[in-house]
């Protein structure tokens, strides 16, 4: 079960209070996808994107503020080169809830990447990583059993997604700079 003051629960409560339909994991994946595609936090554009994602007429100030803070924090984590991106996922005892959260994060990532500012052809490793994230997004969490082996596999997949997102960011950011920044492998 998540702690009452966890970032996931805090954002979930803010989204729920606003009447939004998207969970925090998907929202964080969306932010990371946009950042990996070259978009940078732009309050006006991102408020519009947030409203569309959450299916809201207007985004309350508190939710907009949390969203922009999430975007800034995610950009720092992705760009630091310190492998410190933390996926915002449900931290529940139920493996099904956690698997569903990871699948939602991946769905959000793909949507955000598609709406981002990616120009040109992606490196083969990024293309493959996007394809893998797409496959993970289709994960049927209902068939995940509550075994020690399944727990281990879910953690491995979660780590794969985390590193894949950082690699995509590095490869697209390196292409933007025109010089190769360090490539994460």
**Which sheet architecture does the biggest sheet show?**
none
Oligomer: single chain
Number of helices: 7
Shape field: globular
Key terms:
disordered C terminus, mainly alpha, about 180 residues, 7 helices, about 65% helix
Question: How would you characterize the overall build of this protein?
Answer:
The structure is a single chain. The protein is globular and about 45 Å long. Helix 1 runs antiparallel to helix 4 (61-79), helix 2 packs across helix 4 and helix 6 runs antiparallel to helix 7. It is an all-alpha fold and 185 residues long. Mean pLDDT is 87; it is low at 177-185. It contains seven helices and no strands.
Concise summary:
This protein has 185 residues and is mostly helical. The chain has seven helices and no strands.
Strand-helix topology:
Layout: H1 7-18, H2 24-36, H3 43-54, H4 61-79, H5 95-115, H6 124-137, H7 148-177
């Amino acid at each position: 079960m998540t702690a009452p003051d966890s970032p996931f629960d805090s954002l979930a409560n803010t989204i729920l209070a606003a009447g939004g339909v998207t969970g925090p994991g998907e929202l964080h994946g969306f932010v990371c996808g946009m950042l990996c595609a070259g978009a940078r936090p732009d309050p006006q554009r991102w408020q519009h994107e947030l409203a569309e994602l959450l299916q809201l007429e207007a985004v309350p100030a508190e939710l907009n503020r949390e969203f922009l803070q999430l975007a800034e924090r995610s950009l720092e984590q992705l760009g630091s080169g310190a492998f410190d991106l933390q996926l915002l996922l449900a931290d529940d005892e139920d493996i099904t809830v956690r698997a569903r959260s990871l699948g939602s994060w991946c769905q959000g990532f793909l949507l955000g990447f598609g709406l981002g500012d990616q120009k040109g052809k992606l490196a083969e490793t990024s293309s493959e990583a996007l394809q893998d994230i797409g496959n993970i997004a289709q994960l049927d969490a209902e068939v995940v059993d509550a075994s020690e082996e399944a727990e281990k596999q879910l953690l491995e997949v979660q780590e794969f997604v985390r590193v894949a997102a950082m690699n995509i960011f590095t490869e697209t950011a390196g292409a933007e700079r025109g010089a190769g920044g360090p490539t994460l492998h």
